[in-house]
Amino acid sequence: MASVLCECLRSLIQKDIQDLLIPLFINVLFLLYSSRAINVDQSPNSDECEFVECLRNHSVPPNLYFTPQSHFFNHFFFSSVRNRRPLLNSSKPILIFLPTSENHVQAAVLCSRSLDIPTRTRSGGHDYEGLSYASTSGPFVLIDLQFLSSIKIDMHSGTAWVHAGAIIGELYYAIANHSRTVAFPAGLGPTVGVGGHLSGGGLGTLMRSFGLSSDNVEDIRIGLASGEIKDRGTIGEELFWALRGGGGASFGVIVAYKVRLVAVPSKVTVFTISKNLEGGATKLVDKWQRMAYKVDKRLFIRAVFTVVGNDSESSDGNKTNRTVQVSFKSLFLGEKNELLPIIEDCFPELELKAEDCTEMGSSTLQICGVEEWMRSLKSSSLSSSERNLFSCPLFDAEVVGRRRCNERHVDWLRRFYKFMTPYVSKNPRAAYLNYRDLDIGTNVKGNKTNYWEARVWGERYYKGNFKRLAYAKGEVDPTNMFMNEQSVNE
Ligand SMILES: Cc1cc2nc3c(=O)[nH]c(=O)nc-3n(C[C@H](O)[C@H](O)[C@H](O)COP(=O)(O)OP(=O)(O)OC[C@H]3O[C@@H](n4cnc5c(N)ncnc54)[C@H](O)[C@@H]3O)c2cc1C
Ligand SMILES: *[C@@H]1O[C@H](CO)[C@@H](O)[C@H](O)[C@H]1NC(C)=O
Ligand SMILES: *[C@@H]1O[C@H](CO)[C@@H](O)[C@H](O)[C@H]1NC(C)=O
Ligand SMILES: *[C@@H]1O[C@H](CO)[C@@H](O)[C@H](O)[C@H]1NC(C)=O
Ligand SMILES: *[C@@H]1O[C@H](CO)[C@@H](O)[C@H](O)[C@H]1NC(C)=O
Ligand SMILES: *[C@@H]1O[C@H](CO)[C@@H](O)[C@H](O)[C@H]1NC(C)=O
Ligand SMILES: *[C@@H]1O[C@H](CO)[C@@H](O)[C@H](O)[C@H]1NC(C)=O
Questions:
Q1: How far does the centroid of ligand 6 lie from the alpha carbon of residue 319, in Å?
Q2: Cα–Cα distance measured from residue 337 to residue 349, given in angstroms and rounded to the nearest whole number
């Protein structure tokens, strides 16, 4: 053992020298992060050494994995930590591995299995509870897919193969680069990762016409506990079903998705109308709740609530009263002159006028802001702290702020969650997997939680389907290699 450890230490030291020679995304961020070291035991332990040796045995290039001793560990670790709150209670990974091919993913799974060291898979890192990079159950290896992100579009069949480590903004951009009249239904935030998003649902502006992201997945390539990489034809329809809404993390490491592109008109119309409480927002929200889900399917309207103004006098002596503002933000798959009569009919209270509407190409809309974001990313001028969007755990509302959530915010959210109880779904009170919430229940630390215990919270995400997911899990991962605080149990 001692000699293995020595050999490992030596290789780690050598590797750091190699790190410096390999210009793998070395940029200013490195400087930012080196001053922000996280507290980890600075000497390599046997788990990480064995994992490193195992990856090396599988011919994985040494510039793709980093131990906490590496200068680059923090850089890659924090590169897609979107929320630091889960780190308060988590151990750091013993190794970060950045696969660039399917073979690498396979190697990671085989090493995890043979060494009995658990893994976490991270694509975009947007999980609200950080389950992709934080763990309350001891040492783990982080498989970060950010370098497995290529996108191949086939306009002929109207499909695309997209690697799990891409973000949805990159997918929108790639699609727009090919055609102005196709799109993919997915979320609003361009930095959301394909890997988590498509396996957990995927709500967005196109969902009324085309469903969720997972409804538009046609094939999946996934690394399984067995060490094999399989696709839809070989995993069978049950697992394929489970991976479209059940979340990927319980079943394996999803490498890529084949998605169906949807046809959209070349011109779409958007508007935003904002009203505050004094301007009658309450009545509008009431009406919106009762009509928005049943109007013409081409029309999507969301309501965004913010607090505006404050009661202090500004420098010019004007007082802005603190109030709640509701913005109705809409996308209509059609032209302005078609939209106006529809709104007049279903939501006249909004008093929408032609000049409130903007017509644009649908692709322009989907990539709004993405182009600039990609440019800044390429020039490396975007610091990771700007990329980080800190978010509170989500209940029924989405609360995303730019600063660290502290206990006060979490406490507020818990009270808000309770306050909403009479107005939302009951028995069970439903939850959306992609808006992860550990408050509804977790697997028990150190114990193999069984299906019956997990049912309490599992049915909130999956209702009657939880049982079916548990069977699918049992078939594909009988030893529960892929587990986390809220993974599906056999
Ligand atoms: C700013 C912001 C905006 C958002 N907007 C929307 C929205 O408009 N619509 C919506 O529906 N949701 C939205 N979400 C929620 C988002 O869909 C989920 O957080 C989603 O799970 C994120 O996926 P990810 O790959 O970025 O996250 P990650 O944190 O990387 O992963 C989330 C979960 O999936 C697992 N996972 C990730 N990749 C893989 C893989 N390749 N194989 C197996 N398991 C994997 C992880 O282990 C983890 O359990 C938003 C979140 C944020 C923070
Ligand atoms: C790596 O390969 C060597 C030689 O085949 C073997 O002895 C060793 O156990 C392997 N190590 C791991 C961690 O798999
Ligand atoms: C950390 O975990 C413990 C037990 O698992 C829990 O009681 C505590 O509230 C957690 N702390 C934070 C900051 O999440
Ligand atoms: C957009 O398409 C052009 C021409 O087909 C290609 O050269 C370019 O690389 C594409 N850009 C992106 C970001 O895919
Ligand atoms: C009050 O509101 C004004 C205008 O929105 C803003 O400029 C100012 O910073 C706010 N002051 C405080 C204390 O929040
Ligand atoms: C703020 O509230 C006061 C008292 O209700 C009212 O007189 C005043 O017009 C309001 N100011 C603005 C800018 O709405
Ligand atoms: C684990 O399960 C056993 C048997 O069901 C139980 O006695 C024990 O208290 C559990 N441990 C924890 C940490 O919950």
A1: 7
A2: 18
pLDDT tens per residue, range 117-133: 999 999 999 999 999 99
Q: Tell me which residues have their CB closer than 6 angstroms to ligand 6.
A: 319-321
List pocket residues of ligand 4, CB cut-off 6 Å. Answer: 173-174, 177
Report pLDDT for 310.
Answer: 78
* Ligand 1 atom nearest residue 194's Cα: 25
C-alpha pair distances (Å), 458 with each of 1, 424, 429: 42, 18, 11
Instruction: Provide the pLDDT for residue 36.
Output: 36
Q: CA nearest 235: which of 215, 251, 212, 259?
A: 251
Q: Catalytic residue numbers?
A: 435
CB-CB neighbours of 100 under 10 Å: 19
Centroid of ligand 3 to alpha carbon of 88 (angstroms): 8
Comparing CA positions, the residue from 298, 281, 277 lying closest to residue 289 is 281
- Residue bearing the CA closest to ligand 5, atom 9: 314
Q: How far is the CA of 490 from the centre of ligand 7 (A)?
A: 17
Angle between helices 168-178 and 370-378 (to 10 degrees): 110
CA dihedral 282, 288, 290, 295 (to 10 degrees): 170
- Is residue 452 within 8 Å of 99, Cβ to Cβ? no
Q: Which sign does the torsion angle of CA 461, 422, 392, 216 carry?
A: positive
Look at residue 373 in the predicted model and tell me its pLDDT.
52
Note the pLDDT of residue 1: 42
- In degrees and rounded to multiples of 5, residue 338 shows phi and psi of -85, -35
What pLDDT digit, counting tens, does each position of 194-249 carry?
A: 999 999 999 999 999 999 999 999 999 999 999 999 999 999 999 999 999 999 99
pLDDT band at 366 (very low <50, low <70, confident <90, very high): low
Minimal CA–CA distance to 256: which of 124, 127, 161, 191?
Answer: 161
**Atom 1 in ligand 1: which residue has the minimum CA distance?**
189
For residue 321, how far is its CA from the centre of ligand 6 (angstroms)? 6
**Is the C-beta atom of 53 inside 6 A of ligand 2?**
yes
